[in-house]
Amino acid sequence: MMKNILIVLMLFVFVKLQAQLSDKELSNQKTFTIWLQAKANAKKVYKLDLSNGALYELTKEIKKLKHLQKFYLENNDLETLPEELCELKNLQYLYVQKNKLKSLPLNIGNLTSLRDLDLSNNPLPQSEIDRVKKALPNCKITFNQTEIDE
Questions:
Q1: Is the N or the C terminus of the chain less surrounded, counting Cβ atoms within 10 Å?
Q2: What is residue 60's DSSP assignment?
Q3: Residue 102, CA atoms < 13 Å, CB-side half-sphere
Q4: CA 112, 134, 75 angle in degrees (round to 5)?
């Protein structure tokens, strides 16, 4: 019984490690810039850049990009992010500066792989900033050009 548990645990760790690319591998991946192309190639999307697109809403279908590790959403008109974003377990970098965000998804803490979150130039209240810092203790977070390493 203990041997079976150990095998399952080792398999889980192996699968988790295989899901995320190294920084070098990630830098060699194509950056998708058109949502419809990304959606059509969901299994191949590791980087997505939807910056400067005047987006006011992010589709809940974002959860289909299971391999997404780097996501650029800066300089849009987003006021909220969908809760489905928190299903992206491989997401390591999220750049949402220069939007109109007043809050983040309640389950933002589920993004356990998140290493870098840029929220600068968003009208986030202090209570929301405090909640995000608590929810993501191992993430480098930038609020209004002030880095917070926890």
A1: N
A2: G
A3: 2
A4: 75
Reply yes or no on whether the pLDDT at 145 is more than 50. yes
Residues in the chain: 150
- The pLDDT-based confidence of 19 (bands split at 50, 70, 90) is low
Asked whether residue 102 carries a pLDDT value surpassing 80, the answer given is yes
Residue 9, SS3?
Answer: helix
24-to-20, 29, 107, 121 alpha-carbon distances in Å: 11, 9, 29, 29
> Cα–Cα distance between 93 and 68 in angstroms, integer?
9
Asked whether 102 and 123 are in contact (CB, 8 A), the reply is yes
Average pLDDT, the chain: 88
